[in-house]
Design goal:
single chain, mainly alpha, cell projection, cilium, flagellum, Flagellar basal body rod protein FlgB
């Protein structure tokens, strides 16, 4: 039973991380034409969840700090590549969908255990 609670906590952390990462990606895309803007990203969820470097709390929450990416710069000093940001966005969406799927499955198990499986 307690493993399910940890799984739910992890899924909630993954969803929060995905939301925070989407905000960073959106900011990068918004500044795609800003001279000198340096693209950033959050550390991987696994690293944040374990509380590794730049992982603030170890719970996967959105408190991880964005890190500047070391990417090739355009002549104006901007490092945002829209193709790269779109790839990152797709990865993040997949993580968010996985978190929601895990949360739904865990919720279904809890409802069945409580005798409310059909509601």
């Amino acid at each position: 039973m307690f493993e399910k609670l940890e799984l739910t906590r992890m899924a909630q952390g993954l969803a929060a991380h995905a939301g925070a990462r989407m905000a960073v990606i959106a900011r990068n895309i918004a500044h795609a034409d800003t001279p000198g803007y340096r693209a950033a990203d959050l550390p991987a969820f696994a690293q944040v969840y374990r509380g590794g470097p730049n992982g603030a709390t170890g719970d996967g929450a959105a408190s991880a700090r964005p890190a500047i990416l070391k990417l090739a710069a355009d002549p104006n000093g901007n490092t945002v590549a829209l193709e790269d940001q779109m790839r990152r966005m797709a990865e993040t969406r997949q993580g968010h969908e996985m978190a929601l799927s895990i949360y739904r499955s865990t919720s279904a198990v809890v409802r069945v255990a409580l005798g409310r499986g059909g509601q």
